[in-house]
Amino acid sequence: MRITDLIKYDNYIKNDQIRQNEIEKYSKQIATGKKLLSPSDDTVATVAALRLKTINLNIDTYLRNMDFVSNVLDQAESTLSNISNAGQELRVEIIRLLNTGVLDKEDAKVLRDYFVNMKDYIIKQANYSIGDTRIFGGVKSQTDPFAPDGTYQGETTETKVPVAPGVEINTTFDGSKYLGVDTNDKQMIMVKVIDKIVDIIDRAIAGTGSLGELNTATISVNGQNLKILEAFDVGLNNVLQYTSIIGTKVKVINDLKSGFEKNKVFNNNLISNLQDVDAAQAIINLQKAQTAYQALIATYNQNRQLSLLDFFK
After folding, report:
1. Are the beta carbons of 271 and 54 closer than 8 angstroms?
2. Which range (121-125, 218-222, 289-293) has the least confidence?
3. Using CA atoms, how far apart are residues 96 and 126, in angstroms rounded to an integer?
4. CB neighbour list of residue 223: distance below 8 Å, 6 or more residues apart
5. How far is Cα 182 from Cα 82, in angstroms, rounded to an integer?
6. Residue 227: phi, psi to the nearest 5?
7. Residue of 69, 74, 176, 195 lying closest to 126 (CA atoms)
8. In whole angstroms, what is the distance from residue 299 CA to residue 163 CA?
9. Cα(215)–Cα(18) distance, rounded to whole angstroms?
């Protein structure tokens, strides 16, 4: 069969385009560091990489939420620890007061001031805010959750954010639970006890009562009449319990965060394997494509002038 000049030229153009495309492809791979320059290069790998990137975007959202929640939990745990530490100091003073009483009115006034200051400190801590958000007010976070007398005026509904699929952690807390509020009158139990002690001291100073009432007085706590120390322990133990609950939530956050960070590193490695080019291999491929292109040009130039007449004698 006779090979016409047009056939030779068409074959040359077709192979010329193939080799130029190869050179362009490998040059771009080396320049960009990516082997997937367009979705058509490898549809399956492109889809897999996009899916992994979407997963990582979700992980980034959860990690941002975790950072925010961790800060809130740390502040809440610190606040409850401050209140429980104050409560434990108060408990020691209450026991001493129940066992020994006070020597005179001056001692009584000093003790009264101590209890009042501790009450104010506890309420101030209970109204702690991050920015303008009172963390123990539930969803009602723009105003102090506790009135000056320790009455809870916040909400029981809490604000939460997702930190993992199906897992939500508080960013505000129901202060009536975390700070030991009486279910009937909504007053913080430790504050109720302090008010009772201050009232007894005031009446003793005024001569209308006796400090001996400290050993006999009762306080209504959640519908039960309890002695002063018993009532105080109910409120203090409630704060201690929820301090440990927040500590547990901190551990959950840390465990989840560690797992997500490992998953993200693993996903990034998979994405790199799917998308990133092997530089050494790309250079070899480029050199092969260049050699093939040079051979194509040389072959065409060598054969384009061939004619059947050259073989006639």
Report:
1. no
2. 289-293
3. 26
4. 183, 184
5. 20
6. -65, 165
7. 176
8. 65
9. 100
| Contact (Cβ atoms closer than 8 angstroms) between residue 6 and residue 269 | no
Q: What angle do CA 86, 125, 122 make, to 5 degrees?
A: 45
Residue whose entry in the numeric block shows the structure tokens 């509020």: 181
Model confidence pLDDT, tens digit, residues 109-167: 888 999 999 999 999 999 999 988 999 999 998 999 999 999 999 999 999 999 999 89
* 3-state SS, one letter per residue, for the chain: CCCCHHHHHHHHHHHHHHHHHHHHHHHHHHHHCECCCCHHHCHHHHHHHHHHHHHHHHHHHHHHHHHHHHHHHHHHHHHHHHHHHHHHHHHHHHHHHHHHCCCCHHHHHHHHHHHHHHHHHHHHHHCCEECCEECCECCCCCCCCECCCCEECCCCCCCEEEEECCEEEECCCEHHHHCCECCCCCEEHHHHHHHHHHHHHHHHHHCCCCHHHHHCCEEEECCEEEEHHHHHHHHHHHHHHHHHHHHHHHHHHHHHHHHHHHHHHHHHHHHHHHHECCHHHHHHHHHHHHHHHHHHHHHHHHHCCCCHHHHCC
Q: Please report which confidence band the pLDDT of residue 307 belongs to, taking 50, 70 and 90 as the band edges.
A: low
**In sequence order, what are the residues at sequence separation of 6 or more whose Cβ sits closer than 8 angstroms to the Cβ of residue 240?**
84
Q: How many CB atoms lie within 10 A of CB 123?
A: 23
Which residue matches tokens 């092969």? 288
Nearest to 74 by CA among 198, 258, 300, 246: 246
pLDDT of residue 309: 47
